[in-house]
Amino acid sequence: MSTATFTPTERDADVMDADAPRGWTVIPQDPDPGMDYLASEDGSRGFTAASIRATRVPGDVMYGVVKFADEPGTYSLDVIAKAWRSQIEYHGDRRDVSEVQRRVIGGSEARGYSYVETAGKNGDMYYEVWLVGRHDGLWRITLTSAPGQTSMPDGLADEFLDSITWTTPAGATSSASG
User: Fold this and answer.
1) Rounded to 5 degrees, what are φ and ψ at 33?
2) What does each C-alpha distance from 108 to 4, 116, 131, 138, 175 come to in angstroms?
């Protein structure tokens, strides 16, 4: 079972950087602190085209809601990924829910799964979700196809995920970076 070490009181997140797929637009961070990274095929914020989104659940938020591993300051990435997948299977109109091969993203352990959302107003849509265990919390990276498509172009997910890096901003309280 994989565990991730985190700092429950750490408020400062590292900054995620990645190479958007060729021809896609990286959308500047919204003042709403919910979205840490957004790129889309058509430059929109919505789900009108293929997109990639990353959000972070801070350690102090996780500390109040997540069942932790035996060691203080750690959580089980496997347990969280299994619970997240159960919620995906239980809620909504989804099919073909499956685990994606485990991997490392930006130097941190990650767990992924994919599914096809069948209730969209523009037809079926493919989702690939990655949960990345880091010291600054849990990062969720979601890749979506364009409406009406049930897969991502070959190699796009790997190329994007392999390009991810994290850096600690100057003046942040963190002493670690990925």
Assistant:
1) -70, 15
2) 9, 26, 10, 10, 16
Q: How many CA atoms lie within 13 A of 72 on its CB side?
A: 2
The confidence score (pLDDT) of residue 128 equals 96
What confidence tier does 177 reach under pLDDT thresholds 50, 70, 90? very low
- DSSP output for 57-102: E-HHHHHHHSPB-SSTTEEEHHHHHHHHHHHHHHSSSEEEEEEEEE
- Distance separating alpha carbons of residues 100 and 114, to the nearest angstrom: 7
pLDDT at residue 126, as a whole number: 94
Provide the pairing of β-strand 3-5 with 74-76.
antiparallel
Provide DSSP, 6-25.
Answer: --TT--PPPEEE--PPTT-E
Nearest-angstrom CA–CA distance, 55 and 139: 6
Mean per-residue pLDDT, 29-37: 71
Do 51 and 141 touch, CB atoms closer than 8 A?
A: no
Q: How far apart are CA 20 and CA 158, in angstroms?
A: 12
Return the DSSP state at 158.
H
The residues with which 150 forms a beta bridge, in sequence order, are none
Q: What is the pTM of this model?
A: 0.84
According to DSSP, residue 145 is labeled -
